[in-house]
Amino acid sequence: MSKASEVERWRKLIQSLEREGILHDKNVKEAMLRIPRYLFVSKDYRDYAHVDEPLPIPAGQTVSAPHMVAIMLQLADLRPGMNVLEIGTGSGWNAALIAELVKSDVYTIERIPELIEFARKNLERAGCSGRVHVVPGDGTKGFPPKAPYDRIIVTAGAPDIPEPLVEQLKPGGKLIIPVGNYHLWQDLLEIIKRPDGSVKVKNHGGVAFVPLIGEYGWRG
Ligand code: SAM
Known about the structure:
Layout: H1 3-19, H2 26-34, E1 55-57, E2 61-63, H3 66-76, E3 84-87, H4 93-102, E4 106-110, H5 113-125, E5 132-136, E6 149-154, H6 163-167, E7 169-182, E8 185-193, E9 199-207
Parallel strand pairs: 3-4, 3-6, 4-5, 6-7
Antiparallel strand pairs: 1-2, 7-8, 8-9
The structure holds S-adenosylmethionine (SAM).
């Protein structure tokens, strides 16, 4: 496919998400136009990057569908200067979008070495490696060296809300996380930490993510 038609197909997808009312935040739209998903998938899937479905990435994982990425980024309500942690780097695409929205450094944790390498290469190629720091490890424990966070975005499904993530939020901070009893079916939760440390939980309905595996997640 020519470069021009790839750009055009991506632009059409963004327009259709906007028309359907899924993508309504101007900043998220601009970030998604500037940082297309086709830069974050392997050659075999590049022709399908504009299709609004999750796509396979190495190690049996997935890069989320564009509508799901838009929904989570809009819920996170990211603004310049925010300190954000992402858990589940995968391809690096969502982390690159976060960095574009907060215009500062972003830390993202991944547990699978093959994906750490895959994401770093993608970020480099997309020109986003300067601000996105891919950290190897178990993200269910958060990342204390850079805490507290304004936002924590988890892109894998957890059995419960991991306590360390709530602890590492600032008062008024927000955690976006899929939580469910089944590996591939969760509720998308928006968790807001009140100044007294308690939390308010809003449920945004059913989603399907690969499992969050770790000490405060599913046992691998
Ligand atoms: N955000 C990614 C992107 O933009 O491509 C998609 C993430 S994929 C749906 C979920 C990722 O979470 C997988 O790469 C998986 O290896 C990772 N993961 C699962 N449990 C984890 C954990 N405890 N810590 C860090 N990463 C984890």
